[in-house]
Structures are given as structure tokens and as C-alpha cells.
């Protein structure tokens, strides 16, 4: 559906995008992830035809965005970072304008009503956009992208400015849309991408640094697997028993965390799952297991490794609740 | 194009700008028509339009100042430029809306003329229509220049003042052509002058080359504005 080939964008000396290529099939949700200023919006602006690339090409639904711009644009519904809303229009007037601007041929009343119902703005359809809250404006922006029912939706940070309840609503909405639309969704918030995307593209400083499903990304980066366990029981005895297990490569004692409870980190041979064996061992010896977590690299860790410290600085305060 | 012109026209009359423009220009028309009635000769009607040329040129920048400046400032141009519409159509829609506000004003200015015609048998409608046609022509040209200037800046004020500067220049260019000794430049200046091209209309002279001139100005500036918008993509 979308074919991006060797896309490069230079602003004078600065390289905003460096040779990015990817393709997106039909009915998938692609998460575009990267720290602020990584090139997410630039890529989206080029796909939608708002900006031109310095070199490379973009095809949407088989139409080259340079050679057949109007055909390509007709395939796309775009919600830019700042929704293009006219503050002096009512929601209804605005959507009617967009309907005419995009030269949509679907039955007008019905189509616009369906969209308003979908993004839940029916109750404000007669109000001035300038008087709406940020959350509602964002939804009007989303409605605008949906007008004409384009097969491709490009959403630049669609949940910015929404409250937690609205964020969940919009995520579910996007998930639903992904069943019969190709969606590209950008965010610098990892859990958001993780929640909706079928595939994740990570960009950093203008380059594509990773491309895969959330599962693939989590596993590709972590060669070793660890199991972190808290067990009640005499430490020495437990440690010895753990070491004696199959596939265990090493055990580290992190000390007594609660009275009588020790925490251990167990290194496991690659590709082996120790959890069940550990459970039967513990129950046989009557050592209550109080917690057990498999410490694969989380997506957050993967992301941090890929993008370096830039993300950390940006998101240290807000990104901590990833898992 | 249709959608943009319609939306623009609406927004002129959703904000005070449209009413203020139409109102103030008609007020001035009223003043001059009052003079015509006082003098009691309908032959002065075309001269009202001749005088209104200066005022109209002064007020036209108000109509065009927000055309693209506002869109760029509020990032709404992103919506227009990513819609399946060519830039030419976008620019022409903007131009058309501002021009229509001016045309509405000129249309309304004919009401006093109709009333005067009831009391005067000697009113030359041919001349009046020629004059109004001329007004629409210079109006269209000025609007296209204003729309172009508004595409150069995000600030409405800067756009208004710059357009105002251009219209003043076009008003004084006549006198400048008298001051220049070089015949070529003198001719060039009076060739550009909107006033020299417009005034014959008020005397009932229908000049084809002037019509072509004004329409060419429109075409050139609509084209330049479209190129300006296009160039933004390559920034």
C-alpha cells in the first residue's frame, strides 16, 4: 500500500532523513517510533505530499506522490501534528468544507454523521472549533482525516493532549480502523505504539534503526535470558538447588529482600524456559515462590538501546510506566 | 477550488473584515453620490468611480492580508496542501473569494446609481457599466497582488502593510513617470500605472489593451503565488 524508497531529506547542511526505505502492506498498523526530532513528522509530511524529498520516492496505492499527486493524496487521510482546524468554523461546517475540498462522492449527510459518531463528536457538531477543548479538537482532526474513507491513514501523534480515558478510546478506535485501513501512527510514547501497532519502525536521527513486530524487537536484542525470582527458604540451600537445575548457567544472590525471602537472578541457556521446572522444584522443597519475572529486554530497553540517550533525556519523567 | 472559495467567502463574513470593508467603501461611495445629488448632474456618476479608485486601492490590502498568512500561521495550509487539489486551484479559490467581496461592494454601489437614474434621464448606463467593469479589473489585479504578498509572510500585519505599500506605489507611479526624464522609463512607468489604465473607463473609453493588462497581472500573480506555495515543499 505504501512504498517508501531511499527517502532522503536535507535542509541545507542538516540531514533530516537519511535513506529511509520501508513498505507497508494493506490493513496493518505501523507504529512510527522515535525521540522528538528523529524525523517522524518529516517522513509523514513527505508521504502525504506536504513536503518533497531531496531524493527517493514514495508510492501510495501504486501512485507516485510526485507524478500523480492528486491520486496519491486521495488515498490518504492525514492528521498532522497540529490538526489543520479553522477556529471560526463549527465542527459541522468544517467537516463539510473538508468533504468538498476532498471532492468526496459518498452520501454526505450519512458519511459525516458516521464519522462524527465514530470519533464521538456528534454532541459538539454545532459548536465553534475555537471553543472546543484540546481533546475535542484532536478528535475533530481525526474526523477530518477520515472524511472520504481513505484506505491509508497517517496519524501524527494522535493522542497528544487527550486525557487517559480518551487515549484508550482513540487507541481502540485506531485498532478498529486498522482492520480495514493501512495506518501509520507516530508517537514518542512507547506503550502507545506497543498497544496498537502490528509492526514498529524505530527512527533515530533521520535513520531507520529497527523494523519488526513488537515481539521480534523484544527478542532480537536480548541474547541472554534471565529469570528473577524471590523465594522463601534458607539462602544457601536454595542457591545450591538452583545451581543443580538443568539449563541453569549461573545464579546470583541479590540478598534478603523480606524476612526470610531472598532474591535470585538465574541465567538460563538460550531458548529454554525454566519457569515450570522451577515451580515444581520449589513446591517439592516447600519454598514459596513470591515473585518470578522473566527479564527479557522490554521494548523500552530495546528502544533505549536503539536510540541512545536522546530518548532518556526526553522521557525520563513520563516514560517510566512503560510496562 | 469551489470549496476553498466558498469557505473563504464565508469566513470574510463570519469575521468583521467583510462587513467593515463593504461598509466603509459604501460609506465613501455614499458621500460622493451625495455630492452628485447636491450638484444635481448625473454626468458626474462615472467620476465618483474615478475618485473611488484611490480609496479602493487603499482598502483592498485589508481583504487580502489574511489570505495565506493566516493559513500558514495556524498550520491549516497543511490541510489544503495535502488534499487532492492542485495548488493552482487553491490559490485561485483564495483569489476568487477576495475578489467576490470587492465585486459585491461594487455591485452594491450601483444602488444609488439606480436611484439617481429615476430622477435623471441623461444617465449614461453604458459609461457606468464600463466604469464598473474597469473597477472590477483593477480590483482583481490588486487582489491577486495582495494574495501573493500574503503568501510570503505569516504575519497579517506585514502582509497588509506591504500590500498597502504596493498600492501606494501604484497610485503615485503616474506622477513619477512625469518626473523621470528617460523616455523609456517614463513610458514604462505609465504603462504599469493602474490609474492611467483605469481612468479612460470612467470617460466611456473601452480599451482592450487595458483589459488584457489587468487580466495578465491576475494571471502572473496567481501563478507566482502557486509557485510560492509549491516552493514551500522544497524548503
From TrEMBL, chain A:
SUPFAM superfamilies: P-loop containing nucleoside triphosphate hydrolases. Keywords: ATP-binding, Hydrolase, Nucleotide-binding, Transport. One of its GO terms (molecular function) is ATP hydrolysis activity. It holds the Pfam family ABC_tran. Residues 2-230 form the ABC transporter domain. It is an enzyme of class 3 (hydrolase). This is Putative ABC transporter ATP-binding protein YxlF. PANTHER family: ABC TRANSPORTER, ATP-BINDING PROTEIN (PTHR43335). Belongs to the ABC transporter superfamily. Its EC number is 3.6.3.-.
UniProtKB/TrEMBL annotation, chain B:
It is found in: Cell membrane. The keyword Transmembrane applies. Its main location: membrane. Keywords: Cell membrane, Membrane, Transmembrane, Transmembrane helix. The keyword Transcription does not apply. The chain crosses the membrane at residues 12-34, 46-65, 95-119, 125-150, 157-185, 205-226. PANTHER family: MEMBRANE COMPONENT OF ABC TRANSPORTER YHHJ-RELATED, MULTIDRUG ABC TRANSPORTER PERMEASE YBHS-RELATED. This is ABC transporter permease subunit.
